Amino acid sequence: MDTGSFSGFDLELRENGIAWFQFNTPDRLNGMTVRVKRDMIEAVTQAQMDNAVRVLVFTGSGRAFCAGDDLRAYHGKDVVGGESLVPPIHPGHDSPIGTYDGLRMISQKLNTAVRSLDKLTVAAINGVAIQTGLSLALSCDFRLAASSARLGSATLRFGLLPDEGGQYLLVQLLGLSRALDFVMRKRIVSAEEALELGLVSEVVDPDDLQAATMAFANELASGPQVSMRLLKRSLYNAAELGWEQSLDEIAAKTAVSDHHPDVREGTKAFFEKREPKFNAWLDPQD
Question: Edge-to-edge strand order for the sheet containing 120-125?
Answer without folding.
Answer: 4-6, 9-14, 18-23, 55-59, 120-125, 142-146, 202-204
